[in-house]
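re: that complex we talked abt at group meeting.

here r the seqs, copy pasted straight from the sheet so there may be weird spacing, ignore it
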Amino acid sequence: MNYPANKWSRSTPADPDVDLLREAHKAPEGDLRAFEQLVVRYQRRVVANCRYITRDQNNAEDLAQEVMVKVFFGLRGFEGRSSFANWLQRIKLNHCLDYLRKQAHRSFVGIEEQDVHEFDQLKDLTTADDMAEVISNRQLISEVLDSIPNTLRIPLILCDMDQMSYEEVSESLGVSLSATKMRIKRARELFRERYQKVQCAATAIEQHEQ
Amino acid sequence: MRDDQDTDPGEPISALAGLEQDVSTRFVNRIRRTVQRRTTLSQLASFSLSIPLLVLRELWSMLTTRPNPKGIRKDADDGEKTS
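got the structure back, here u go
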């Protein structure tokens, strides 16, 4: 593979992945070592994103794997106009949204549908055993996130998990800027409200146990 | 990445920024195997397209190349002498 030496000159100066990307390009066919280092660097984040965007714990790794494979075969076309992390984020989001659309066709549940996974499910967690599973903070966050509908959850994840700007979220989702801001605001409110409720319930059960 | 750094949303929203998921140890191996499999498949596909074209081109060049008349005459002379 022949790549001009200045191919990455347009890339974000502070992009920490430039060296690895250069190595991945220079590597002979079949040598994936540099690319694997990039995978190791981003794998936990990509899997988490796939899991929370799609709410599919079982397929999160498979989705992340497909994203990484797409990234590998797309590396030739990557021109370095944005950072690698940004580019990876776009591929990941598009892949997850495609997955959600396919799922929606299969199960007749629209991507725009509100409250697919009802918050009521959390209210059923009344036994100590159930609550023990949810007690860790990460688990608690996962449960609350899963209870938020797609229309609010996805912008929230992009904004507060991926640290994207409102403009980037709006562009990625094809929604107007004002609608994006509104959705993020509502999602944050809903997240706080439900998080507090579950946390209060957990504390009450803990005290009751004692 | 984030241009309009608005006010910190505070807990528990800020906890989302550090949210990661554990990954199985085989994850990288699975990606490597998938990449290698797809590369092999694409090479096979390109071979299966290029090899018939190559054979056809060779056949065409054999048919269109004129045989050397001097060479044929010489062979015929040699045959007469030996008989």
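couple things i noticed - Chain B has a mean pLDDT of 79. Chain B touches chain A at residues 1-4, 9, 12-17, 19-24, 27-28, 30-32, 34-36, 38-39 (CB under 8 Å).
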